[in-house]
Amino acid sequence: MTLRRYVLRRLALTAVTLVGVILAVFAMTRILPGDPVAVKAGTYATDEVRASIRKELGLDKPVPVQLATYVGNVLKGDFGRSTRSGHPVRDDLFNRLPATVELALAALLVGALVGGPLGIWAALRRGGRLDAAVQQVAILSAAMPLFWFGLVLIFFFYHLWGIAPPPVGRLATNIAPPTHLTGLYTVDALLTANWSALRSALGHLALPTLALGVAVMASFIKMARSAMIGVLDSDYILAAKSLGLSDREIVWQDALKNALVSLLTVVGIVLGYLLAGNVLIETIFAWPGIGYYAWNALTGSDYDAIQGFVLLVAIVYVFLNLAIDLAYTVIDPRIRLG
Amino acid sequence: MMQETLPQLNPTPGAGHSDANAAAEPLVRIEGLTIGFPDETGERFVPVVEDAGFVVHRNEILGLVGESGSGKTQTSMAILGLTRRPGKVMAGHVIVDGVDVVGLDEAGLRRVRGRKAAMIFQSPRTSLNPLMTVGDQVARVYVRQRGMNRRAARAEALAMLRRVGIAGAERVAGSYPHQLSGGMAQRVMIGMMVACGPDLLIADEPTTGLDVTIQAQIFELIQQVQAEARMSVLLITHDLGVVAETCHRVAVMQGGRVVEIAPVEELFARPRHPYTVRLLGAMLRPDRPSGDTQEPDPLPERLDIEVGGRRYEAVSVDAWAAAGVGLPMTIEVAPGHFVLCHEREDGADAAETER
Question: Which residue among A236, A238, A334 sits closest to B82, beta carbon to beta carbon?
Fold first, then answer.
């Protein structure tokens, strides 16, 4: 069947992409300026020390051997060891990933749930004053520098009005994290009925979510509006009108679903962007996610950590795209039934 | 249900009064219809249809022919109140079964659309919602227009698919538009529109992009449903062969105006407007030897017409500006045969100086 062939082909493509990703990450660390040995050995190390570190890192071996070792390690789940934390990079990343995922999902929710309807609403009132206003909002939200907006939020909501908790981390210091289920504090707190943790987690989540959500909202407004306009101008909407269907029936039964199909792609792109860990926002809010980790790794020349971060983000991206493509097979009969 | 007689708006000067048609009020009466679109500056509206008028009688197939851009589609869309923004109806009346569609609000238009008049379009496959099964799309018409419950509507939808000649209706009902061929999709569209039970079916070049054999089948189907449901059909086409075979009467449009209306045989036998003459001259004629293609003279831009001792001339619309003609009028040159022309005030002199 065509659907099975499509899924199999898509999976095969994913495997190829992953191999490419691993090769690229390996090449990246060889090509990039900077010498991991020098970083690890320090400025005053003797040549013997350097040689032994080189040997320890396996850098004395020929490149193909290094590649084979690297690929083997990655496949075993060994991303190397962080020089800063002293922990395996994999553990560091996986400990921090839930924080990023939580923030990414929350921002996606805000961006999509506010931006999507706004864009669709604007499309339904195309050319009107509301349409113009919504487009201004989109331009503003896209043009606003993220770090600046984050700082503005902190200034008003924390510093000036004292509504928001101090912009440090995911919980107040006197609150223990909820029982680990998903790693998303809000979800875990909800599931374990831990209301004090939930309150604190939501409070800490609010401002970074707002900052990122407003930033990604622009994409949703623009895409939802243009998708909806495209749909509203299509032949089948005209035909539905000529059948005497009401505007409401046409919007709900024909237009929305067709517009949302094209919005799914935007969800994938935006979520990919958010999951890469937003370095600026995570840094401003001392959010213990992978973006903050990557920032520290970069400034500290923590090569294995950088390499691991890039690899993780790339893998997440590849699987996210796979998930979106597979989701299309469920909602779009043109793909499902070829 | 018919309303009392309509006020005669802008009675067409010189038009004859055929008593046979006056007795039964036509299903659709279009009068002085002018549709404009804004020009580049957005301040002025440029008419794409100007002072157009014709009627569609009950239980007839009226062909609407003319070159691309002559306003055929715009005119027919106006019947459904579907003139697309930024275009708008600037003047005139479109009276469908006693109701003037021009200036009607959305709720009023919804009562006209589907029930009074429905429309099938050039591209059947894109005229169906890609994300909804064919059966659901036909069924919802029954829910909407006939107030049926879903179950009854589904059964009716299946019956309708069979009626429009779809083999394996159950299977087709469960499939999506992209799985249909163009001909099948157009059958579905016709079924969907007929399901509304309209008095008028507008078919806007319904066979563009289809195989020649399929084209013939679609026209046959249109004739069949027309006869079965005793409805009227407004068939927009530029295929005069189709008109000759399918239609009862023909209206010819040029440059946004209706220039000639006549019963089919009459029009083909005695075209009076220069544009109609040109159109018929351009028709492929299998009965004419293929060597006989050389046209004797350039076809005329104006033709003289004499009715009841008065002299008129019919002028090709694209030559109006150059000819400096006055206001056009519609005259009846033979029973049911109307031509858009101009009065010749000072006899042959005016024509002489222009030539």
Answer: A238
- Omega into B86 within 30° of 0, i.e. cis? yes
Question: Does B155 score more than 70 pLDDT?
Answer: yes
**How far apart are the two ends of chain B, measured CA to CA in Å?**
53
Distance in angstroms (rounded) separating the CA atoms of residues B42 and B74: 19
> Measured between alpha carbons, how far is residue B44 from residues A6, B20, B36, B90 in Å?
53, 42, 9, 12
- The total of other beta-carbon atoms located within 10 Å of residue A334's CB is 15
Q: Which has the minimum average pLDDT: A156-160, A315-319, B8-12?
A: B8-12
pLDDT at B258: 94
Which of B119, B129, B175 is facing A254, going by the closest CB pair? B129
Look at residue B133 and give its three-state secondary structure.
Answer: coil
Q: Indicate the fold that domain A95-292 takes in CATH.
A: MetI-like fold (1.10.3720)
Q: Closest Cα to residue B254, out of B75, B72, B66? A: B66
* Tokens (6 digits) for B320: 């109006």
Q: Find the closest chain A residue to B145 by CA distance.
A: A244
Dmax over Cα atoms in chain A, in whole Å? 86
**Which domains, and CATH codes, for chain B?**
19-128+180-254 (3.40.50.300), 257-285+299-354 (no CATH)
Range of weakest confidence among A86-100, A205-219, A274-288? A274-288
Kindly identify which residue of chain A lies nearest to residue B197, measuring between CA atoms: A243
